[in-house]
Each structure stands twice: as C-alpha cells, then as structure tokens.
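User: Let's play a game. I give you a shape written as tokens, and you guess the letters that built it. Ready? Here's round one.
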C-alpha cells in the first residue's frame, strides 16, 4: 500500500495557505490510485521537542545507552519510522521571520542522522528516489532567492543528504488581506497558480506504467528531430539562437520564412536610418527541445 506522509507546521490554522495547499496535494494524491494511505503529522498541534542531546544526532548503533533521554529517543524512532515508511512526503513550510517554523526545524533535526538516514554514498541512502514536496508561503511579495531561507535547509537535508526527489511549490503575499498595498488580487492569482500546481500532480497512466513524462510514447511532438527539420530553413530545424535563417529552394516553408526575413530586414534597414535599431539584424528561430527521458512525471 502506497503511503503519503503529510506534515504541516503552520500556526495559522484554517487561514493558512500552506495548510490549504498541502491538503489539496494530499487529496489529489489519495484519488490518484487505489489502496493509498495518508499519515498526518501536525507539528503545531503536536509539537516535537528540540534535540535534547547530541547523541540523538548519531546512528543508534554508535550513540551508546547513556547521555540522552530514552523517551525522546523512542519518539525519534517513531518519527523516523513514519518517514522511512512513506513513499511520498508533502511538507507545509511557511516562512516565519525569514526562516522555517521552529517546530519544523525540530522535526528536521530528529530525522537527519548521518549514517542512518543521511549518507554521502547514494547507494546507502534509504530515502533515495522518494518524493518530497515542500509547500511554502510568505507574507510579503516574492523576492529573488527569498524562498531559500525556508527551502534551503530542507533541500540540503532531504535532497542532498538523503537523496530524495525534491520539489517546491510556493506562494506569496499572504498578508495582503491586512496590508492592501501588497495587492489582494495578485495574492489571489498567485495562490490559484500554486493550487493548480499541487492539484495537477496526479500520476497519469503513463507514469504508473513507468513511461517518462516527456517521451515519444506520450507526446508525439517530443522528438530529437522534428518532422519539419528536413530543410535548413524550416521551423523546428534547431537553429542556434542568433543564427541567420537560410532557406532551401526545395522547401515551401523555407521560402515563406525567407520572405518573412526579407521583410524584417527591410524594416530593420529603415529603423537604422532613424537610429532606432542595432547595426546588425539577425532573425533567430527557437530551437526544438529534445526529450528528457530521465525526467519523470509529477504525481
């Protein structure tokens, strides 16, 4: 039976954006297949103690029998068992004062054990390949790199040290209802985009059959060479960005592109006379993107 570990850490209750998004993810995941089980851990309602001894950061075989609280060690074992038994983990991780909630950090400290859950050799990682989806939200508008204050430690532990398949879904402006200058309409649009992302993660039949998300079996338009790439001037030829277009007399499409190019070059010459365009004018076609067989679909 497939198992999802659903973790929430927000203190906002029903007003929480991360709780709404993580709940939508869990509901979508539950309906994606038969015999699915969800284990819920609410880190705000049932708070974990912070790491009481450095011994609990060591593998159980190397920590000895003294120097730590046996009750906390037993609790740590239960938390570890939940994580190791899960096939997918979704974590609600709001930003509080440019960091994750301390309750979530306490959970992270309990599950990150070098030599037990975290290994430098990928072959030894018991969580390797399992999916971890982090849903984060912040009260202010989005800024470049600001999510890393929350998602950075989670990525370092879960993805780098434990080898999990790590994803982030984020939204912002959650304080727009009390600070109108943030733009309630922008906040609502961002939240709806995030909601669409978590609800779109139901695995398709192709994913369940082991077919990559973008592959010729699923997407006939996904080819290493497009059918339209037979002539150098045709669309889909994989022209390098910034490369001039060459047409082929055998290609009607190439001739059409050449005519369009001549019109654009004439327009550019007119613009140069007015000093409004660069000296050189080159017309670039988009490159056909190859398949990515190793990239899996989203569930």
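Assistant: Ready! My guess for every position:
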């Amino acid at each position: 039976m497939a198992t999802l570990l659903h973790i929430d850490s927000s203190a906002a209750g029903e007003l929480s954006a991360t709780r709404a998004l993580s709940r939508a993810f869990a509901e979508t995941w539950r309906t994606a297949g038969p015999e699915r089980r969800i284990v819920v851990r609410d880190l705000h309602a049932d708070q974990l103690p912070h790491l009481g001894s450095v011994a609990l950061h060591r593998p159980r075989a190397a920590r000895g029998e003294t120097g730590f609280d046996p009750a906390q060690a037993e609790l740590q074992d239960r938390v570890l068992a939940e994580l190791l038994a899960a096939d997918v983990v979704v974590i609600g991780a709001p930003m509080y004062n440019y960091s994750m909630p301390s309750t979530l950090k306490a959970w992270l400290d309990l599950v990150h054990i070098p030599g037990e859950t975290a290994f430098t050799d990928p072959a030894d990682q018991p969580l390797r390949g399992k999916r971890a989806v982090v849903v984060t939200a912040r009260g202010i508008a989005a800024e470049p790199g600001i999510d890393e204050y929350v998602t950075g430690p989670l990525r370092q532990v879960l993805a780098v040290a434990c080898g999990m398949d790590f994803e982030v879904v984020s939204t912002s402006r959650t304080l727009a209802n009390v600070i109108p200058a943030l733009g309630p309409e922008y906040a609502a649009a961002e939240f709806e985009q995030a909601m669409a992302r978590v609800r779109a993660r139901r695995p398709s039949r192709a994913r369940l059959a082991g077919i990559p998300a973008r592959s010729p079996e699923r997407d006939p338009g996904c080819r290493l060479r497009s059918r339209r790439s037979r002539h150098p001037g045709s669309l889909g030829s994989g022209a390098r960005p910034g490369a001039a277009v060459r047409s082929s007399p055998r290609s009607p499409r190439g001739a059409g592109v050449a005519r369009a190019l001549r019109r654009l070059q004439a327009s550019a010459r007119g613009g140069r006379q007015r000093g409004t365009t660069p000296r050189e004018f080159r017309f670039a076609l988009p490159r056909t993107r190859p398949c990515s067989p190793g990239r899996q679909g989203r569930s």
